[in-house]
Amino acid sequence: MRPVLLMKVFVTRRIPPEGRAALARAADCEVEQWDSDEPIPVKELERGVAGAHGLLCLLSDLVDKRILDAAGANLKVISTLSVGVDHLALDEIKKRGIRVGYTPDVLTDTTAELAVSLLLTTCRRLPEAIEEVKNGGWTSWKPLWLCGYGLTQSTVGIVGLGRIGQAIARRLKPFGVQRFLYTGRQPRPEEAAEFQAEFVSTPELAAQSDFIVVACSLTPATKGLCNKDFFQKMKETAVFVNISRGDVVNQDDLYQALASGQIAAAGLDVTTPEPLPTNHPLLTLKNCVILPHIGSATHSTRNTMSMLAANNLLAGLRGEPMPSELML
Which of 89, 106, 131, 285 has its CA 20 to 30 A from that of 323? Predict the structure, then answer.
């Protein structure tokens, strides 16, 4: 008998156990993994991917022409442990006939929960309140102390009424939100009907909303969408939340808007770059809450994502339909 030729798979990080186990069970694959929780250096990625038939990567791994060239002609499938694909050179990948798997849908609810948590944390000034308890600033009950903004009878604007945007609106509605606005590439009347959400222009959404949640994809059209002009149109009492991608926001303009009191507060689960340097000006502001991109960070969701990413990879290698393939 001739020996079976194993397909080489390279995994760029430690992944949750269910996905790891799925790859380990694949008798037709030889799996190599960058055994760290920290990002793989580019040189190590080039080395690891050389000759690989499949690559399982994360959103922090830039898979560009250089990496594809290092991989060589064997590379048949890239599976990313993310719903976002802006780290992948899709035009180059398509040109080479490489299939792409991703993990949509499975993180929708978890990310929406985080968006609502971040909005409430920001608008009710919870980090400031916790700090006051710890540093002795809590001396007595004071009528005007640490007052924030509530959702009842408010107008909420959602930039991008996709799966996650809808899930956020669904969770906010029971708080007594009076009106939902949304903006995007085109009206989505069927999806909007559940919330009686109105499609408006981006400037209108900025001007009329008490709370703004950014949940759109990063595209050339949305890069830098939330900039000086956007923040100048917002109410002084408005709260801004971004759970999409850092590059949708001009962070210098956001800093000026927050520092000058042009807007009330901001909550960010995504930044540019990631991680944000500890000396970044935004981190000096009490009215800016920044999280380390933990939108999908529950044990259940991350395990489900890893399983889907592994199954996408294995199906692609075997020439089978992927559970979630990005059609290029």
Answer: 89
Element of type H or E holding 78: strand 77-80
- Give the DSSP letter string of 202-238: HHHHHHH-SEEEE-PPP-TTTTT-BSHHHHHHS-TT-
Rounded CA gap, 291 and 293, in Å?
6
Catalytic sites, residue numbers: 293
**Which three-class secondary structure string do you get for 98-154?**
CEEECCCCCCHHHHHHHHHHHHHHHHCCHHHHHHHHHHCCCCCCCCCCCCCCCCCCC
Backbone phi and psi for residue 178, each to the nearest 5 degrees, phi listed first: -80, -35
Specify the amino acid at residue 323: P
Please report the pLDDT score of residue 4 as a whole number.
Answer: 53
For residues 200 and 213, give the distance between their C-alpha atoms in angstroms, rounded to a whole number. Answer: 14
Least confident of 5-9, 247-251, 257-261, 288-292: 5-9
CA dihedral 182, 187, 192, 196 (to 10 degrees): 70
The pTM (predicted TM-score) of the whole model is: 0.89
Beta-carbon count within 10 A of 321 CB: 7
CA distances (Å), 308 to each of 68, 125, 212, 315, in order?
Answer: 23, 37, 31, 10
Phi, psi of 110 (to 5 degrees): -60, -40
State how far the Cα of 306 lies from the Cα of 296, in Å rounded to an integer: 12
Cα dihedral angle (312, 40, 62, 96), rounded to 10 degrees?
-50
Edge-to-edge order in the sheet of strand 211-214: 198-199, 179-183, 155-159, 211-214, 239-242, 265-268, 288-290
* Per-residue confidence (pLDDT) for residue 5, from 0 to 100: 78
Query: Distances in Å between the alpha carbon of 12 and those of 99, 129, 303?
Result: 18, 40, 16
Beta bridge partners of 30: 8
- Position 250: which residue type? N
Q: Please name every residue paired with 213 in a beta bridge, in sequence order, or none if there are none.
A: 158, 241
pLDDT in tens, 59-108: 999 999 999 999 999 999 999 999 889 999 999 999 999 999 999 989 99
Query: 57, 81 in Cβ contact below 8 A?
Result: yes
